[in-house]
């Protein structure tokens, strides 16, 4: 539809202009972008090989032969260049004006790659600019929030699909296979990370990989999963019981649920991740289980499943309105079991709105 | 089983010793490894956060709380350290002797990360060592070849499972969902890359992402897929016909098949990737379709689905015996269709042995 394309085009131009304003403010002549996530955010290009050079007056996107069709349909705000011998060779050709102070993503570019850039493009003064895009990308537009909402809807539906499959006859990998399958069947591009399905004592390993172990009866199962929808990630965790769950496990479950709800109630824009992490951690410490919550409370979500703002003891900057974070406290009792409950929330000045609708009371199947 | 664990332990020790010998030869006091693939190859650790410091006398593996259980079962040849505030803070504590010439993976570490290392560990002289592991990792051990064989067996079985599902009633994404599903059901950890399922004109985009488009009747479909088994990747492409395929498409199919078989016949250890790429490219150029083969002939496969040795115009080093490469010529006619046929082969002095068993004659379903 004409209208949609024009709206999108304007959004894309707005991002290039925002970047060009940042260039101006930082005293740079150009910016050199090599990371695919930032390139997707800036230009819409979703291929696996690209570099973008943004000057004050225009932008080029370099990719290779494989994407000569795709680049035409996806990129509206940069001039696409097919550079089969690599963009550095292309830049060396002299066809492009490139000198002065050029910013680069020093937190993404390798030491070797910078050395090559410097030796191949001696007229350029490369200026390290770590995290240059983070502030631009952290605040989500309505269009981005809608895509994340869609990704979460898929995850909620996938969770409903897999709940009836949970039984002592299936393995962790079986459930993981179903999650990956239904993600795609419900319209996601793919998993946003490898699903975690961890039964019984394996649930005490917060990042356990699904194994060939059958789901253990009368034990908790931690299920952490997500998908990408039009480039945007979802991420959620539920812990469910198979059979009769011990009263100790139920107690721990309810503590984690209280901690999770406390996190959602307390979160709002303007607060630092450090403070939010502290509120939930202090609660768990008072219950005596603080030392069994060994990871940070959450992380930003967007085009990447882990992005800014982080929600950890080290996150001192205020989280802006329009940012999306996870709230995922957990208690892990080694060699016994683990509990984690996770939603994504959208932060505003007045509070936090969860994306997920999946039930949070302990489900025993 | 006792015997297996001891054999594995010896293999692990051999890798640490090989690295320590390289240190000696390079005049280094230690080596600092930050990339997870190399860490898995060296220590067996498969978690998502680790750094390894190898000194001439011992090795440490730093990870975080989440992996305190996993690290015990996986790592036998390095001392595991749980460093919840990051390994740099841990190293700064003074508990570890660390000075002199320390090599680092300059082709993997970012510019910002190196700056942080240098400022936090001022007594260390960091020495850039790009591609330090490539020669060590390129030649596969029998154990590694066995795992890759198993990964390929899974892919062959998955291909058999999806062939009967191909019909005008299903979308590209439906087939991709089945591929991801059956990978896991047959025992793979996950896809080694996002499956490509590209029907008709979409097949002319060598890296098309599966879409909601139904499979087009009387058209070719490019299916490129792979999985990880115990960390090792498979990668294969077949192009199949749905319904009645035009004689032009059949002609192109047979040219690509000839090119693919020529590649397998010609490949052997000691040859450079450049020469092998040239042999196949010259054949396609003589048929008049050379300009429609825009990517390189192949790439190494191992713990990563794309690794050394590359098989491209720029790969001048001889490929060693025991390395595994793909041979994947293609012809892509824009807005019409594409054909690609890909196997993995093991190189020896006498030739190349394909891993895949899936049929290569055009299948019309």
Short description:
The structure is a homodimer of 365-residue chains. Chain A has helices at 2-26, 36-43, 70-74, 87-92, 111-120, 134-138, 142-162, 172-185, 247-266, 273-286; strands spanning 30-33, 51-55, 59-63, 79-82, 100-104, 124-128, 190-191, 196-199, 219-225, 227-229, 232-233, 236-242, 298-300, 307-311, 324-327, 330-333, 337-340, 343-348, 351-354.
Descriptive notes:
- Two copies of one chain form a homodimer.
- The first copy, chain A, is an alpha+beta fold and 365 residues long.
- Chain A folds into two domains: 2-137, Creatine Amidinohydrolase, Chain A, domain 1 (3-Layer(aba) Sandwich), CATH 3.40.350; 139-354, Creatine Amidinohydrolase, CATH 3.90.230.
- Chain A has helices spanning 2-26, 36-43, 70-74, 87-92, 111-120, 134-138, 142-162, 172-185, 247-266, 273-286; strands at 30-33, 51-55, 59-63, 79-82, 100-104, 124-128, 190-191, 196-199, 219-225, 227-229, 232-233, 236-242, 298-300, 307-311, 324-327, 330-333, 337-340, 343-348, 351-354.
- The termini of chain A are far apart.
- Chains A and B meet through helix 5, helix 8 and strand 7 of A and helix 5, helix 8 and strand 7 of B.
Structural class of chain A: alpha+beta
Oligomer: homodimer
**What sequence of helices (H) and strands (E) makes up the elements of chain A?**
HEHEEHEHEHEHHHEEEEEEHHEEEEEEE
What is the CATH H-level superfamily of the largest domain in chain A? Creatinase/methionine aminopeptidase superfamily
Q: Largest interface here, residues on each chain?
A: A-B, 52 and 52 residues
Q: In the CATH hierarchy, what is the class of the largest domain in chain A?
A: Alpha Beta
